[in-house]
Write a structure and sequence with these properties.
- The structure holds two protein chains of two kinds.
- By secondary structure, chain A is mainly alpha-helical.
- Chain A has helices spanning 23-48, 56-77, 85-104, 114-134, 145-157, 181-199, 201-206, 225-244, 248-266, 269-289, 291-301, 305-308, 315-326, 350-383, 387-411, 429-450, 463-466, and strands at 172-174, 177-179.
- Chain A has a two-stranded antiparallel sheet with strand order 1-2.
- Chain A is globular and about 70 Å long.
- The radius of gyration of chain B is 28 Å and the shape is elongated.
- By secondary structure, chain B is α+β, with helices and mostly antiparallel strands.
- In chain B, the strands form six sheets. Chain B has a five-stranded mixed β-sheet, with no helix packed on it.
- Chain B contains 18 helices and 18 strands.
- Classes of the chains: A mainly alpha, B alpha+beta.
- Chains A and B meet through helix 9, helix 13, helix 14 and helix 15 of A and helix 1, helix 2 and helix 3 of B.
Chain lengths: 467, 525
């Protein structure tokens, strides 16, 4: 990763070699990402109708019009940011638009969604620009840890007052469009965890009761209730709310986020063990008590059971058919039949379209793009000095990684399916907007991490670090 | 903290590895197993994405495709659907394919590798080929004549060219319109339910998929066995046959419909279709000789393909003497498809050579380039040329001076054999009327058409059913159509058949003889 190895051995007297900002690299990569997406969009039309789709120019203008201001904002206010973050986000968002536009061609999947997805993407990029321009330093956020958690809980609780959609109460309907507040809540929760854990790191790591009186089993030490209590309560509240709303994917995500951040903050391997035990217990309980979950576990174990029973293929079976028909190189954009998956094809199962039409090669490329994004997040975390920033970077990166794993593993029958949105790829306004905010925060953090040292230090001894 | 971040990152790497390995498993390792799952609609979607190749009869397309506007983009249409249904079968988006639509499906759908002009081209481009066309051997004039001859009565006609094995007509009646089954809509399931529930079984291809007791037409096989085995040397010499004939080892007496069968020569016995003479010939020959001769004509062959599968025509291989006697006159367990009996007539008409019957002349790709063509192939020498000549004498006498006068075609030498097959429990069913025959154009050495006709006319009064009266006129019009087309002119339309001369052929147990005792009833349908 991008550890600043060049500066480490240098004598303090000598000015450190000027680190390249690499904004030009970012620009060319952004242009390439837009070009690839445009090509994909055109290809869908050429493959299905034999001519360029009507909205090609508008689509290209929309994507380029969103990407370039984002680049300019980075160039202006985050000169040293990691040059890969923005292009990867643009590319993933572009691929997502292509896939949604491609699925729009199947009338059985309902209204066309690519247009609104483009609008939401623009809103997301707008937020990205706002964050990059308006947030001078990520450490400011640590002051708002408690504000964040309050907002997060409010957002999570809000859908209870709205009717359920497809068996899950995770939407708020406002003025005709629906919002999934759980998506926003995950960023807020990451901010809260980072703020709280970084502030109480020492207490979490070094105080508390030992379960076993042994020096070698120090990792069995449990922090005191006073330190652990609030964070545990917050987490339990959010997961409890999500269970009430039957949003198991997001509760799993929050649980994973909590365990990873706790582990990184305290350095105690025990948390991993506790986390895994709790996860297993929770999964078992949910799997046996909740019929909704139980059926998903059954689908996971026996994806073709409904076929054998003569009831037609389940969504998982349809998804596997899609992946299988893609093979190594895919059928080509516009030439697959992943719309057979049904109503969730544009959201939960959008990855199946990638697998079918772009093949294993394309699917691996998409997964590696996510991996690169996550790796750059972890890299920024490693390069930073302040615990809040490190925890936030690790949290956001883990959030992305876990989300991709849970949904990709779900649609490919690796783990039981839980309803989560593939970042940037899936149809869904809240999801796209949130992921753009995550990337904005990573850009902000990486700018800080890669900024050359010897510049006259601005007032960075912000109270946020100490909280 | 750095160590923990690295471990967390390492954990993410593990997750990524799990995803990539699983993607490889799903998309490469298990892809084939998944893709073969019939629940995957991709197969159907891809199959109906483009117009299907066509089936041609006499150079004209009898199938077509039309856009549906639905997910399955094209569906099949049929011109003259009911007429050619016993040849084409149907191609349904719900119920699959049958007959030629089924056996040539890969070619028609464009997945057949023979359509690739460049090897592996399909594997590389994944572009689906346009479907190829199947050119059948069917002669439209013969097909139409056969269908018109049956005129809606239940029955079947099979006609072929003895010299090449090309099938000239395959008609089954009543028929159905395969267009009704082509799509995927509700009216298709309704049509399917109606057709499958229909007692007349319109979707049954009676010409190749239904076996009937062949009745007296099987006497051709018996005569062939007797001649080949040397049991009969002189056709005109009287035989030592009582009338009625008591089946060996039983109390059952077998009689004849008409007089003059006692000690009749094979020639006369064949002409007027004496049961007693041929039953005794069969008993004297024994099971082995009978079965051997029948198998030389194609009986007991489970592997015959046109390429559509042909139902097996059977002669029991282990029989007691009385059972052989009954088999020899086409009763007991002996059953035959109309195609099988046409093959018998064809072998007799063409010097004993039995050609492999086939329904496909050639297959071409979408632009008309021949992909594969089929050559005549000798299946077996059924009888020697000498025996074939003797059998021709017998069969031609049936038409000139016997029960088959209704089959005579002006300008051609016609040989034939009538049959009236008993069936049903206690032989209670209306007998099947049979006629098999061939026509040799005047001056030619061998037959140019052979035909078999079955009429299972359940509506007719029992006494009226006879091979000569019901089936022979149909055979005549089919043979006339083929010969007329050969000569390039139309044959004068067939007038109403005159009343059949001579006694109707067939096996009728004498009244009051307790025929049910000790005799296994022939299979009906």
């Amino acid at each position: 990763m991008s550890a600043p190895t060049a500066t480490a051995p240098a004598a303090p007297a000598r000015p450190a070699p000027r680190r390249p900002a690499r904004r030009g690299v970012e620009l060319s990569l952004v242009v390439a990402a837009v070009a690839v997406s445009m090509y994909g969009y055109a290809e869908v039309g050429l493959a299905t109708d034999g001519r360029l789709p009507a909205g090609t120019a508008g689509y290209a203008a929309g994507l380029a019009g969103a990407a370039l201001p984002a680049h300019l904002a980075v160039r202006l206010r985050a000169r040293y940011a990691d040059p890969l973050l923005l292009p990867i986000a643009v590319l993933l968002n572009g691929i997502g638009l292509v896939l949604i536009g491609r699925l729009d061609l199947a009338p059985s999947l309902g209204a066309r969604a690519a247009g609104s997805q483009l609008v939401w993407s623009a809103v997301g990029v707008g937020l990205f620009v706002t964050v990059v321009l308006a947030l001078p330093d990520h450490r400011v956020l640590s002051r708002y840890a408690y504000v964040s958690v309050t907002a997060a809980l409010a957002l999570l609780a809000a859908p209870i007052f709205f009717p359920a959609v497809n068996g899950a109460r995770i939407w708020i309907r406002v003025a005709g469009s629906s919002i999934q507040p759980g998506e926003f809540a995950k960023v807020l929760l990451a901010v809260f965890f980072a703020g709280y854990l970084s502030a109480n790191r020492a207490a979490l790591a070094y105080t508390g009761r030992r379960l076993v009186r042994s020096r070698r089993l120090r990792w069995l030490q449990v922090p005191t209730g006073r330190v652990l209590g609030p964070v545990l309560a917050i987490w339990l509240a959010s997961v409890g709310v999500l269970v009430l709303e039957r949003d198991l994917g997001t509760s799993l995500l929050f649980f994973g986020l909590f365990v990873v951040m706790l582990y990184v903050a305290t350095g105690r391997t025990g948390w991993i063990a506790v986390g895994l035990l709790l996860a297993a217990a929770g999964a078992f309980t949910a799997g046996s008590l909740e019929p909704h979950v139980h059926s998903r576990v059954q689908d996971w174990l026996h994806p073709f059971a409904t076929v054998d029973a003569g009831l037609g293929p389940s969504q998982i079976a349809q998804s596997l058919f899609a992946f299988a028909s893609g093979g190594a190189l895919g059928t080509g954009l516009g030439q697959g039949h992943s719309y057979l998956i049904g109503f969730a094809a544009k959201s939960d199962f959008v990855l199946a379209t990638a697998g079918e039409e772009l093949g294993l090669a394309g699917l691996c490329a998409v997964l590696l793009l996510y991996a690169l994004l996550v790796a750059r997040g972890f890299g920024a975390g490693l390069a930073l000095r302040d615990p809040f920033g490190r925890l936030l970077a690790v949290g956001l990166a883990s959030l992305l990684a876990l989300q991709v794993f849970v949904i990709a593993g779900g649609v490919m029958d690796l783990i039981p399916l839980t309803g989560l949105a593939m970042p940037f790829l899936a149809q869904g306004g809240s999801s796209v907007v949130t992921n753009w905010v995550i990337v904005a925060l990573l850009v902000r953090i990486s700018d800080h991490a890669r900024r050359p040292e010897p510049e006259p230090q601005p007032a960075t001894g912000a109270p946020g670090a100490a909280a | 903290m750095n160590r923990c971040i690295r471990y967390a990152a390492g954990f993410c790497v593990l997750l990524l590895a799990a995803l990539l390995v699983n993607a490889g498993r799903v998309q490469l390792v298990e892809a084939r197993a998944y893709a073969g799952n019939p629940a995957d609609r991709r197969i159907a979607v891809a199959r109906y994405r483009q117009p299907r190749g066509d089936i041609l009869v006499g150079g004209h397309r009898v199938t077509g495709s039309r856009r549906t506007g639905g997910q399955l983009r094209y569906e099949r249409t049929y011109a003259d659907g009911p007429l050619y249904a016993p040849v084409t079968g149907f191609a349904s988006q719900i119920y699959g394919t049958t007959l030629l639509e089924g056996t040539e499906d890969a070619l028609l759908a464009g997945t057949d590798r023979r359509l690739d002009s460049v090897p592996l081209w399909h594997e590389i481009t994944r572009v689906q080929q346009r479907g190829g066309d199947v050119h059948t051997t069917i002669d439209p004039a013969a097909q139409r004549a056969a269908a018109a001859g049956l005129a809606g009565r239940k029955g079947a006609v099979a006609a072929l060219d003895p010299a090449t094995g090309r099938i000239l007509a395959l008609v089954s009646s009543p028929s159905y319109d395969p267009t009704a089954l082509a799509g995927a809509g509700r009216e298709v399931t309704r049509a399917w339910r109606r057709l499958t529930a229909d007692e007349d079984q319109p979707m049954l291809d009676r010409a190749i998929r239904q076996t009937y007791p062949p009745g007296s037409t099987f006497k051709v096989v018996t005569a062939a066995a007797a001649l080949q085995g040397g049991l009969v040397r002189d056709l005109r010499a009287p035989t030592d046959s009582p009338d009625p004939y008591r089946l060996p080892g039983t109390a059952v007496s077998l009689g004849n419909e008409g007089p003059g069968c006692a000690d009749a020569s094979v020639y006369d016995a064949f002409r007027v279709s004496c049961n007693t003479v041929f039953a005794k010939l069969g008993a004297d020959l024994g099971a082995d000789a009978m079965v051997d001769q029948a198998e030389r004509f194609g009986f007991n062959d489970t592997r015959l393909r046109l390429p559509p599968r042909v139902a097996e025509s059977t002669v029991d291989t282990a029989m007691s003497a009385d059972q052989v006697a009954l088999s020899a006159i086409g009763q007991f367990d002996t059953t035959a498809t109309p195609l099988q009996m046409a093959m018998v007539a064809a072998a007799v008409g063409d010097k004993g050579r039995l050609m492999r019957p086939r329904l496909v002349d050639k297959v071409t790709n979408h632009s008309g380039l021949t992909v594969a063509s089929y050559r005549p192939e000798l299946l077996r020498q059924a009888v020697s040329a000498r025996t074939a000549g003797q059998l021709r004498q017998l069969m031609e006498a049936v038409v000139t001076a016997g029960t088959g006068a209704n089959a005579a075609v002006p300008g051609a030498v016609v040989g034939g054999k009538t049959g009236t097959a008993q069936h049903g429990r206690g032989n209670a069913g209306t007998p099947y009327a049979w006629f098999i025959g061939y026509a040799v154009p005047r001056g030619a050495a061998a037959a140019s058409v052979a035909v078999a006709v079955v009429v299972e006319d359940a509506a007719a009064a029992r006494a009226d059913v006879s091979g000569g009266g019901d089936a022979a006129p149909v055979a005549r019009s089919v043979m006339a159509a083929v010969l007329g087309a050969r000569r390039g002119r139309t044959v004068p339309p067939v007038s109403a058949p005159p009343p059949a001369p001579g006694p109707p052929a067939g096996f009728a147990p004498p009244a009051g003889s307790g025929s049910a005792a000790g005799v296994r009833r022939p299979r009906g349908n």
